[in-house]
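chain below, 193 aa
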Amino acid sequence: MGEWSDGGWAVTGPHVIPQLPAYIPPDVDMVAVNAAVGADGVSAPAADVPALKQVVAEAESKGIDLKIVVIATNPPIDTPLRDIATEVGQAHPGSTVLALSPSFAGTYSTQFDRVTLEAGQDVAKGGNPVLSSQNFVGELGASHFPWTGFTIVLLAGVLAAVAATRALQVRARRAVSAPGGSSDPEGSAAPVG
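prediction:
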């Protein structure tokens, strides 16, 4: 729990930050999912597979190596879908993975940033896996506000303002301490006395 030291009890924390293990629902057979995804990019109920293959082909034409996993039941929360997507993505390096249930979506990608993936997830929730997948691909291709560029320009502006302020301070200080300069704003007055 802790050790006694000169100043009192010393409590030490873990040397490694613990990471929660992935939670894959027990009714999801990840071996079968990875095999199906490896074969044609889709692991889904048979009725949805042909249309989802078309979505995968459309994504491929846009330069996106998309893998789609559809599970029939909702997990208690949406986190397991991200865990499923992560496991499939790690088994298929370079791919972007969309995992869907009737009400949730989860994603994984090394190609797209998390903000873009979250925006895609938002439009991919809805129950119809084909429409959800099409919406997801559409969102990945949509242009988004360039926050990185905006942040760089904003930081450059702040740094320029700081440098200019500092230069003006130094200049004002030199003017005051220069011969003939005065630190008294009223001018030098002879002592009365």
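Residues 147-177 form the longest helix (31 residues). The mean pLDDT is 86.
thats it, cya
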